[in-house]
Amino acid sequence: MTQSAYPMLPVSEALAIVLAQATPLAPVMVPLAQARGLILAEAIRAAEPLPPFPASVKDGYAVVAADGPGDYPVVGTVTAGQVAGFTVTAGTVAYITTGAPLPSGADAVVMVEETELLPARNGQTFVRIGRGVDAGADVRPVGFDLDAGQVVLPAGAYLGAAEIGLLATVGQAMVPVHARPRVAVLSTGDELVEPGERLGPGQIRDSNRATLIAAAAAAGGEVIDLGIAGDSEADLAAAFARGLERADLLLTSGGVSMGNLDLIKPLLDAAGTVHFGRLRMKPGKPCTFATVARGERQRLVLGLPGNPVSSLVTFYLLGVPAIRRLAGWPDPALPRVHAHLAQPLRLDPDRPEYHRAVLRWDATLNQGRGGFLATSTGNQASSRLLSMRSANALLELPQQAGVLQAGEIVSALAIGDLES
Ligand code: AMP
Ligand code: MG
Question: Which residues contact ligand 1 via a Cβ below 6 A?
């Protein structure tokens, strides 16, 4: 019997090895508009307080709170973006809009709904203030939202919409972030042709490259397309060289199993260090990880299996965390949730299985407290890419004989948006 030289590693150990080799890329400055999805490399402080002036929270009248309800002359108007050139003295009020600086002398705002505009007397506008307010009412004092000097975002923060807004608020037009990882994607196999080509005898279309390019971009990578390499050492070595020149992470698919033309492992062994060459999991057992020295930074190489499902599942399990760690994520792991099985699932006694499923929130689960219901995507053959279609989770099925019954709870790794 032909045996693989590589021990079968549990996925958790393999992930720890990958993350230990993937150190965050050096910080770079990028324009704010390009910072979304990246990780902040330095803490950002607010230089000025927000608001920088006492600002009205409402449309209404700036008042001296001690005056109380009554009829008052309106001595002026101040709208957002302007500064009042007058003072509100006791016994007078000023019209003010939301976000406008409170005029000097005023100490509160009464919203317009609590007032009534009166007929002018001798050309002077009067307003009836219907309700007394405390000093400070409906005024945001200086620094209410942000103090000057306050850390608004720590190093390691993920830059989503709110974080981009905070950076804009504090005037951070250029943002120090960890560089976006460059991810090169290579398909290998003599049988592969491009999606636009007609199939000749024995040929299939290359689906892994399109899949992995999409998945790597979605994971935050800047993708380099290396095309298809045939099953020859010369072809593969040339493609490797192109990838390793520029990429932080090289993803290959195919050529890692036990066939005569599975040349990736020996090539990686010659070029660098193979850290593992087999995983105790299904689907994706032959998944291989290596590091190769190049310039001042070592390159990471994930030799993913050729079967379309295996390559995508192993990319989620190891590739996504690797990209995130390179990008500076403090915790690069996929989110994990509990899910109730919608149907019984047969277990594999030899390997833990990552079963593709659709997770949907079901309000009737857990005695009406709600929970995720996991529906299998059907036949889990590693060639059947349809089993990944619309899957938003990988159920972590234990290595065990027998069947898990419908209703049993399993852990699940989220690989897409959870459905409601
Ligand atoms: P391999 O690991 O190279 O032996 O490939 C395993 C299986 O995956 C074979 O059936 C290949 O034809 C198939 N395969 C490999 N690469 C791709 C690809 N890029 N797109 C679609 N199928 C592939
Ligand atoms: Mg092949």
Answer: 187, 189, 191-192, 204, 206-209, 253-257, 259, 305-308
